[in-house]
Design goal:
alpha/beta, 44% helix, 260 residues, globular, single chain, 7 strands, Rossmann fold
Length: 260
Amino acid sequence: MQIRLDGKRAVVTGANSGIGEAIARGLAGAGARVCVNYVVHPEAAEGVVNDITHAGGQAFAAAADVSDGTQVAQLFAAIDRAWGGVDVLVNNAGVDGPRAVGWEYPPDEWRKVLAINLEGAYACAREALRRMIPQRSGVVVNLTSVHEVIPWTGYSAYTASKAGLGMLTKTLAQEAAPHGVRVVAVAPGAIQTPINASVWENPATRADLLSKIPMGRMGQPDDVARMVVVLASEAAGYVTGTTVVVDGGMTLYPSFTHGG
């Protein structure tokens, strides 16, 4: 089966590096027009756009902090001006925040993580759904994490935001389904990107991480991107309100391989 998204209008938040960049490139490779959202490093976003356009695709870069509702509204207004609406939203922008146990976590930092990861995803979904519902078509893909279900000491804000985003996905899917719109989530596991280089470049921490992955390797951004492309396409036309885990088996709790 060939997966195609020809002519679809897509926006990927946090798309100038890592997983978001791979998703933007993957959607474009399947024929979608892509808005590459970013907050910092505009040169990286323009690099992604240039690669897409040089390959014959259509793309443009747009700055917006998803935790700022005004900037989110401006982002979608820019997409309206360029393409007259949106068919695919990928809520990828996110941060993990500083590491601290819950009772020592700085409240402002805790709220910042929620503002980006959960409130930002909601703000973007709200704008997208207000366009998708009247046209009775569209797909919202939320990037959660294996920490939607796995606790992670020191990162209570991150885990709370991703668990919340998982339930937001289900609720929005329930609301949107009668209107022909799907809402799904993708939960990556340990994906090898520059943001976690300190883990995978250190032999000891890399070995510890790999012991948590039954498949014995870290994921690559393209592993996630390919799943997002499938979920955004008609190949997944009967899939909504669920989280697809892309983790090499991390959520299988490999420490129980030899029994409890």
